[in-house]
Design goal:
The structure is a homodimer. By secondary structure, chain A is of the alpha+beta class. The first copy, chain A, has two domains: about 60 residues, Orthogonal Bundle (Arc Repressor Mutant, subunit A); about 140 residues, Chorismate lyase-like (Chorismate lyase), CATH 3.40.1410.10. The first copy, chain A, contains seven helices and eleven strands. Chain A has a six-stranded antiparallel β-sheet with strand order 5-6-7-10-9-8. Chain A is elongated. The model of chain A has no long low-confidence stretch (mean pLDDT about 95). Chains A and B meet through strand 4, strand 8, strand 9 and strand 11 of A and strand 4, strand 8, strand 9 and strand 11 of B. Strand 11 of chain A pairs antiparallel with strand 8 of chain B, so a sheet runs across the interface. Chain A binds a DNA duplex through helix 3.
DNA sequence: CAGTGGTCTAGACCACAGG
DNA sequence: CTGTGGTCTAGACCACTGG
């Protein structure tokens, strides 16, 4: 049996996966270094590096300088969620997108908001509430605070035909952010807007984005009952 | 002003980010090709490639052969969730991990399960229910089906001291999987086990993993009220 | 200190898709 | 057909870190 040759990084990756899978390399095991693998696979070290780096990014390998590469003892599944603009979420599924502005005003936020956004306690922010609809049915309720000290252009935008979700993502860059998902029981008002029963279990997404240390916007999006966020592993 | 030199792919990435950020390159714009950027930045094309490839992976650029590289018009935020073993989730936060097996038996599953797992309608599966605790408080309820036709070793494991969550992740590889997050109102039984009020809003994770086209396991994990899944952007 | 992964380089060929 | 990104190569130096 002749040794198969591995001509590209994906086939190298496949072979490494096969060995992990077949338990030739067991969790916790140290695997050969890049140079040796390159010789064995008959390719350049760069190619092996690319394959192993990719696997490490997926959590299947642990790599450390000098210490070498090990098969992850406790694999951590990395699930990548694509958080798209809500309009696209809906139209991509072939549904009709609808939008309704519920409220838009500049007010002094409650302490919880100004605290999280690190804005001054008395500093007013733009507060927008809007409803997204799919095929005329309530889909998600957007409850957003915008730091107009950082994004003054937002004051000139009427969010009556397109949502702040859309406008901000397309027009305001950010350097980093935090996102959290949780479940929340619908309050009476929320149930009313989302046309569901009070006390329904709702899927909630909280996002806070920053631009070079200054908060840009903080948003809570409440999805109507039945919403699922899915992805592949 | 002398042109700064970019000696590594991260600094190239930073510069590209800066240009996008400063709107020198606007959403939808075609940016210069790799070769030109390499000349401008005074580095090898490989280095530019690495930087742009990374940005494309993060959803900030759209790249196509022949068509070139464009700034994403509708940026899609990619949030990477690390789905760790529940025990580690808890101990990493400095809490005490506890575990309790509620039930373990081999039975014929309801059609919804055998359908999703693509097992024969009458084929029995191993069904395990277990509770994870953090500092002695209920944390998550694991409701799992295991395809013993694919993982016969599971029959020899007593899940009385460590969970199937842990055992499977450490011992059974998979090739791919699906994962979904949603919200669910607690049934009376679930509320009982999780020591919360009936009708509480619970965060739910459903995972189904496959190994070369055969289902390995299907699990539903219900988290006690207050649970948040967080990540950075 | 020395072995490992991390990266850069210059050049090359290839695959794809727009015109 | 041709320009673009995608990738491979061989060699080199560097940065980190375990022993």
């Amino acid at each position: 049996m002749t040794a198969p040759s591995f001509r590209n990084w994906q086939s190298v990756q496949d072979e490494v996966l096969r060995r992990i899978h077949a338990r030739e390399w067991k969790p916790g095991d140290l695997i050969p270094n890049e140079a040796d693998l390159a010789i064995e696979f008959g390719c350049a070290r760069t190619t092996v590096n690319r394959a192993l780096r990719s696997l490490a990014q997926n959590g299947l390998l642990d790599r450390k300088r000098r210490a070498g590469t090990r098969v992850a003892a406790q694999p951590v599944a990395k699930a990548t969620l694509d958080i798209a603009i809500i309009r696209n979420d809906i139209t991509d599924r072939g549904q009709k997108y609808g939008y309704q502005l519920l409220q838009s005003r500049t007010i002094v936020p409650p302490p919880a908001i100004s605290g999280a956004m690190k804005t001054g306690a008395g500093q007013p922010l733009l507060h927008v509430m809007a409803l997204h609809l799919a095929d005329d049915a309530p889909y998600a309720l957007e409850n957003r605070w915008i730091n107009t000290a950082v994004v003054p252009q937002a004051l000139d935008v009427k969010f009556d035909t397109s949502s702040p979700n859309e406008w901000l993502l397309q027009n305001v860059p950010y350097t980093n952010g935090e996102i959290a998902f949780s479940a929340k029981m619908a309050s009476r008002d929320e149930a009313d807007v989302l046309a569901c029963l009070s006390q329904s279990a709702l899927f909630k997404m909280d996002r806070l984005t920053w631009d070079n240390g200054q908060s840009v916007t903080k948003v809570q999006i409440l999805f109507a009952p039945g919403y699922q966020m899915r992805t592949e592993l």
